[in-house]
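Sharing a chain and its predicted structure for anyone who wants a worked example. Both blocks are below, sequence first, tokens second.
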Amino acid sequence: MIDLRHPWILLLLPVAFWALHRVPYRWGIPREAPRRALGRLLARTLPSLLALLLVLAAAGPERRVVVKGLVPVVDFAVVLDGSSSMQALDDGKENRWDAARRILRTFILRRNSDRFALVLFSAHPATLSPLTADHARLWRTLEQLELSSRDDGTAIGSGLMTAVRRLQDSPARSRVILLLTDGAQNRGRVTPAEAAAEARRLGIRIHTVAIGGSGEALYPIDGGGFARLKVDTDPATLKEVAHATGGEALTADDPAGLERSLAAIDKLERTALPVDPPTEGRPLARWLLLAAALVALPLILDPARKRGARVPDWLRDAR
């Protein structure tokens, strides 16, 4: 397929053809009036052909070729809980925070044709990465993240609404928010239900993963050691949020359960929607300019050949 970057330049063609038609022989090849039909044809058509090639080259023609991997099938916004409760250990080896980051990296690796945004929230949400297909950058961002006890809390609704804003202008065929949290909302002005309603209005699905069980878990304490504490959870709200947008609500009691949950979401989001193949333009102007140079060559050589010669009667009459 051929496209033009500046199609409006084609408006110059009628003007150029009209001007050349008015003086058909002044650029002519022969040193005298052409006697053969071919000579007369060339004398009239070569200048017009040269004008056509130059105007087409100026219009910026491009050949569109298919390029793989530029248009995502699915755009994800990962909403990750960064509250202090994510330091809990459910299996005695790996805390929820480390498990979530490790398994998220694996999830992103499986989706090599998709884009991801990353939103971290505690008492307030923060966009750590806009939508990007640079997965290596996302992995580095996840690895460098650290939990902070400052401004602690769980503002699920605000985190979800931030993710909605990251996806609202996405051109992807499917847009998905992936929420990973281990607690219930206790901060923020936006409720999870309000964020879910906005996501549903924009056609964005929300999948929720409740990390950790409803019982007690080990939490590190200052000075070393662990204490058994229980964190308030709200699985009912997470289910409402997911089901309101056509998503799934999953529960992960330990890292293995979290891995199974993300694997299930990975299968759910293997969209079968057709995607137009992405293309990029390959400029063609240089070939038109080369053709114009070949066409212009006889027009350049003819005046040199006729230099010093008497002006033919037919040309004098044409003036």
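Comments welcome. The first strand starts at residue 2 and ends at 4.
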